[in-house]
Amino acid sequence: MLALTASLLIVPRTFGLLRRTVSVLLESTPPGLDLEAVRAHLEELPGVIAVRGLHASQISDDLPVLTAHVVVEDACFVDARAPQLFDKMQDCLAELFPISVAHSTFQLEARTHADHELAAHR
Asked: Which of 9-23, 28-42, 71-85 bottoms out in mean pLDDT, i.e. has the lowest?
């Protein structure tokens, strides 16, 4: 009887843990994070032309991460706006969405860099 009670307590937790583990291993987008909304918001920031290669995943069940290539105006690299733009993008992800993404990696690219990209990456 004790074994049956213990298994009834353990089995549901096991399935929950297994579901979260598989989600992490498959690099699934965190539930509740709308990548198109993230893309739209980032593209509204002054100086941002396009967001490419946007990907969000989880490295644990409570630690979402996001990566993206962000095409910005060439002038951002000349007039020192790139660091400020970078800060605005990180603040946006950490504060404006239901899933706070505190760990993000953005690769800032000048518009002219797109000429060097393969067509599949555009």
From this structure: 9-23
SS3 per-residue string spanning the chain: CHHHHHHHHHHHHHHHHHHHHHHHHCCCCCCCCCHHHHHHHHHHCCCEEEEEEEEEEEEECCEEEEEEEEEECCHHHHCCCHHHHHHHHHHHHHHCCCCCCCEEEEEEEEHHHHHHCCHHHC
CATH number for position 92: 3.30.70.1350
20 in a domain, yes or no? no
Query: Does pTM top 0.90 for this prediction?
Result: no
pLDDT at 92: 82
Close Cβ partners of 21 (under 8 Å, ≥ 6 residues apart): 61
Task: Tell the burial category of 7 from Cβ atoms under 10 Å away from its Cβ (0-12, 13-18, 19+).
Answer: exposed
Q: Which domain holds residue 57?
A: 27-121
Smallest CA-to-CA distance from 41 within 54, 59, 28 is with 54
